[in-house]
Amino acid sequence: MPNIGPTGFILIILVALLLFGPSKLPELGRAFGRTLREFKNGAKEIMEDDSDRKEVRAESAAKLEQAKQEQPVVQAAASAQGVQSADNKRLPE
């Protein structure tokens, strides 16, 4: 696909002038600018949400790892005291 050169750009501006008239072009430019600004803000929000999700996942993974490390300690303490597990089986020693 070829790039639009200066001649093509001028042709597009002339066609827009003929279609919309000189009074509507500034309004269209403002509307186009607002649209781009809204798109940019929306993209920023999506990127921020994505980074927030990554932080939450990292925190969850850290908590899960910590719980896994604490679990054998709790089981060993319960076993030493002769406590039975939730399914009424004696915990292995």
TrEMBL record:
Region: Disordered, residue numbers: 46-93
Summary of the function given for this chain in its UniProt record: Part of the twin-arginine translocation (Tat) system that transports large folded proteins containing a characteristic twin-arginine motif in their signal peptide across membranes. TatA could form the protein-conducting channel of the Tat system.
NCBIfam families: PRK14861.1 (NF011430), tatAE (TIGR01411)
InterPro entries the record matches: TatA/B/E, TatA/E
Protein name per UniProt: Sec-independent protein translocase protein TatA
Xref: PANTHER family: SEC-INDEPENDENT PROTEIN TRANSLOCASE PROTEIN TATA
Gene designation per UniProt: tatA
Keyword match Acyltransferase: no
Localization of this protein: Cell membrane
